[in-house]
Amino acid sequence: MNTNLPAIPVWAVVALGVLAVVQITLDVIALVDLYRRPVKQVVLGNKWIWVAIVLLVNTVGAIVYLVVGRKPVAMPENAAPSASPSVRTEAIADALYGPRDDPV
């Protein structure tokens, strides 16, 4: 295989570089998420299977793990509901700038 590198168009080299960066980024995101996630929150219950899928099936493996391989986090039954976003925003504003002079 005797390929002349200057004969390859610049746009093809740039596109290949972008695809390589996307693939590496997706692999790193998937592997870090898999490392941090407990085994109970992983579909199939085995992290090594997902490591093999992510690494051997290239970009598609990382996408499949991120879409299908993770179970949603179950909320405990006794967990208190969080405050509405507007209440939290007002509390932060009051803490930073003090209470308002005129009530809304």
Structure overview:
α1 (10-36) runs antiparallel to α2 and α1 (10-36) runs parallel beside α3. The protein has 104 residues and is mostly helical. The chain contains four helices and no strands. The relative contact order is 0.10. The mean pLDDT is 85. It is flat and about 75 Å long. The longest helix has 27 residues, at 10-36. The protein has a domain at 8-74.
Could you give a quick summary of the protein structure above?
The chain has four helices and no strands.
Quaternary state, please?
single chain
Beta-strand residue fraction: under 5%
Compute the number of helices.
4
Shape: flat
Order of helices and strands: HHHH
Features:
104 residues, mainly alpha, 4 helices
List the helices and strands and how they pair.
Elements: H1 10-36, H2 47-56, H3 58-69, H4 85-97
Helix pairs in contact: 1-2, 1-3, 2-3
